[in-house]
Amino acid sequence: MAGADGPKKNALLLKLAIVAAILIAVAVVVTRGVDVRGLVEQWLALIRTAGPEVYFTAMAILPAFGIPALTFTLTAGPVFGPKLGLPLVVTLSLIAMTVNMVITYALARRALRPFLERLMTRLGYKLPEMDAGDLTDLAIVTRVTPGVPFFVQNYLLGLAGVPFGRYLLVSCVVTWIYTAGFVLFGDALLHGKGRLAMLAASVLVLAVVATHWARKHYGKKRAAQRMEGETGP
User: Fold this and answer.
1) Backbone angles phi, psi at 130, to 5 degrees
2) How many angstroms separate the CA atoms of 86 and 130, rounded?
3) Are 199 and 182 in contact (CB under 8 A)?
4) Backbone angles phi, psi at 110, to 5 degrees
5) What is the pLDDT of residues 15-30, one digit of tens each?
6) What is the pLDDT of residues 46-86, one digit of tens each?
7) Is 69 helix (H, G, I), strand (E, B) or coil?
8) 232 burial class (0-12, 13-18, 19+ CB within 10 angstroms)?
9) Alpha helices in the chain (DSSP H)
């Protein structure tokens, strides 16, 4: 139990630090009377000036280094939807996120593996040794577990040695649903499209329900496997 306390404590401290940083940022914005809407419009104008080539290239690369994917998925529709059309924007977003998952997997398996292993050791984490048949379950559980940042999921699955084909299949099934939902929701939110907002919200709700069911299903499966192991010969 003592060994498990370290990772839990580190995770708690990290979450507290993130919450504190967010609260400080909000306090600064409120106390200084910052024009949030004006800042958003300036940010969107800057993205629009960069062009779709730069934007979707950045979307494919930057989340691998900790930039939240929502930064891109919520702004892609409002910025490029009027010019390119939402179907193309959604398609380009799905392609960018898929490329990002390939990049992070490759980094976890090769270039950044020694660094990531040292980092996990320093934080008190240790990857469990798993049978090949359990790696698909690991990929599904990781993708449907809330609260784990997208890039962290990618690196964890790469470090765990999940076969690339299974990693990409499971990742695309889950990530594409959320990506499409957030692209549509971001466009509807900024432009006041009620029907589109409802459609996007429905997609996201269905995704949440599906991931909750998958997490519950695999939780029961793992519990049953543990009981069989304890009562077996």
Assistant:
1) -125, 150
2) 42
3) no
4) -125, -85
5) 566 656 655 565 555 5
6) 788 888 999 999 999 999 988 889 889 988 988 898 889 99
7) coil
8) exposed
9) 2-31, 36-50, 52-61, 70-84, 86-109, 113-123, 135-144, 150-160, 164-191, 194-231
What token pair was written down for 53?
A: 């080539």
Write the CB contacts of 215 (distance below 8 Å, at least 6 apart in sequence). Answer: 141, 144, 145
CB pairs under 8 A, 24+ apart, for 216-220? 218/137, 218/140, 218/141, 218/144, 219/141
**Is residue 62 helix, strand or coil?**
helix
Q: Which tokens go with 17?
A: 């630090």
**Amino acid (one-letter) located at 73:** T
Which residue type, as a one-letter code, is found at position 198?
A: M
- What is the tens place of the pLDDT at every residue in 82-138? 889 999 999 999 999 999 999 999 998 888 888 777 777 776 666 656 666 677 777
